[in-house]
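Quick check before the chapter quiz. The format below is the same one you will see on the exam, so make sure you can read both the input and the output lines.
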Amino acid sequence: MLPKLRVGLSPIWGASFLVLAALDVWLYLATHSGVQLALAVIMAIAGVSHLVGAILLVDGNTIELKNPIGMTLRTFTIDSPNDLRMEGRKLFIKVGDQAKKISGLMANGGDWNKLRDAIDAAQKTS
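Here is the expected output.
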């Protein structure tokens, strides 16, 4: 089966949210609008969660899909590594007769490549 892996969120997205938070703080200082301060706080939370959070947790035959604040959205259990297929930044998981798609758009590129390599290695040994 698959090794234990953590696919983190992209630090580019996290840094972008932090830049937006800084911009909102600057706008708050210029306008004293409470809305700008609220947006700054929301963007800062999103930025930090993207820097420390994970989108996927893989452990053996279980794959957990997470949201940026860490809550598990869905848990997939696979029978074999052959139930997985990757195409670019998309992971397809065979669930019954269907293939569920998980987008890796917000995933860390290095972690996504490690997942691809782990799936390839597991498929070759099974």
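If your answer matched, good. The chain has a mean pLDDT of 93.
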